[in-house]
Amino acid sequence: MERELALEIVRVTEAAALASAQWMGRGKKNEADNAATTAMRKMFDSVNMEGTVVIGEGELDEAPMLYIGEKLGTGQGPKVDIAVDPLEGTTIVAKGNSNAMAVIAVADKGTLLHAPDMYMEKIAVGPNAAGLVHLDDPIETTIDIVAKANNKRVQDLCVIVQERDRHQDIIDRIRAKGARVNLFQDGDVSAAIATSFPSTGIDLFIGIGGAPEGVISAAAIKCLGGDMQARLIPHTKEEEERCIEMGLKNPRQLLTLNDLVCGEDAIFAATGVSNGDLLAGVRFLGGDLVETDSIVMRSKTKTVRFVKAHHHLSHKPHLVFV
Ligand code: VTB
């Protein structure tokens, strides 16, 4: 992949964030998602690449655009796999809450796990604990390992977990062990990535969330030098078959970071829609001026860029606004 692709991709997440942020707090998650998807789709048209969506808004019959298998880009340039989550946190935006982002991962063709839309068990840590944690270790052991790696007392260790009934047992065990729990409502890509940024205070991410979000998180974590492991949780026979079609002989096999993103070259870009731990959300500054904060990074070079951009909406006729 050419390095210019990184900046092209951040233009695409910016467009999605600008479009969906206009739905903040309006109680309409589908409209917010549609706005992000439409803007992202339009922007992709101008990117020089031969891209195929491997993780998207769904299958062709359920998603009008950015569906799995859709070809993106001008058709000239590198052959790449594309994973999109035009609006990671549709409910967040509908409720006007924190940590919604527009995200994309791009990687050399054939290197992103084609994860179907099902649940996935996940664990993520930052660079200090990379290579040391295992999804199947008891949480108490993992906490000791991460505390030591991050040079913290167990009582200062913070584990981020999505607030769901399915996580009650693990939440109780983390607290019983003496560590702290940060409960979040939605958006586990931003929660997983937070482990690679010490300033967030998050040491460990654990829990069950979407498989597509898992692969996208893995691309970011690979760029950041952190670590992640996962396991798909197929609930039905159809879901089992999807995993097998995807090339996993054992659908419940342990997936390492390299199984999730197997190449050396992946690009991850995200633009904040609402304020979050890592990125500020879209700011409407008056008149037609809007400011965005994005992050874009590449696993091959490990460069992490924060991009602040000023946009003049009157010069963006291609974006759909409320
Ligand atoms: C997960 C998580 C996402 O929605 O898919 C979650 O990965 C859905 O969980 O980041 P529930 O089925 O329990 O609601 C997100 O939080 C947002 O899309």
As residue ranges, the low-confidence spans are: none
Question: Main beta sheet: strand number and arrangement?
Answer: 8 strands, mixed
Distance between the termini: 36 Å
Please report the number of helical segments. Answer: 9
| Structure classification | alpha+beta
- At CATH level 3, the topology of the largest domain is Fructose-1,6-Bisphosphatase, Chain A, domain 1
**Which term fits the overall shape?**
globular
Which short descriptors sum up this protein?
single chain, 322 residues, alpha+beta, D-Maltodextrin-Binding Protein, domain 2, 6-stranded mixed sheet, binds 7-O-phosphono-alpha-L-galacto-hept-2-ulopyranose
Protein model, in words:
This protein has 322 residues and is α+β, with helices and mostly antiparallel strands. The protein folds into two domains: 4-112 and 266-315, 2-Layer Sandwich (Fructose-1,6-Bisphosphatase, Chain A, domain 1), CATH 3.30.540; 119-260, D-Maltodextrin-Binding Protein, domain 2 (3-Layer(aba) Sandwich), CATH 3.40.190.90. 30% of the residues lie in helices and 27% in strands. It is built from nine helices and 14 strands. It has helices at residues 4-21, 29-44, 90-95, 139-149, 168-177, 188-194, 211-224, 237-245, 257-260, and strands at 50-55, 71-72, 79-88, 101-108, 119-125, 158-162, 180-184, 204-210, 227-233, 255-256, 266-272, 283-284, 289-298, 304-312. Strands 1, 2, 3, 4, 11, 12, 13 and 14 form an eight-stranded mixed sheet that branches. A six-stranded mixed sheet has the order 7-6-8-5-9-10, with helices on both faces. Strand 12 (283-284) and strand 13 (289-298) form a beta hairpin. It starts with a helix and ends in a 10-residue tail after the last strand. The mean pLDDT is 95. The chain binds 7-O-phosphono-alpha-L-galacto-hept-2-ulopyranose. 7-O-phosphono-alpha-L-galacto-hept-2-ulopyranose (VTB) is lined by residues 88-89, 164, 186-189, 209-210, 213.
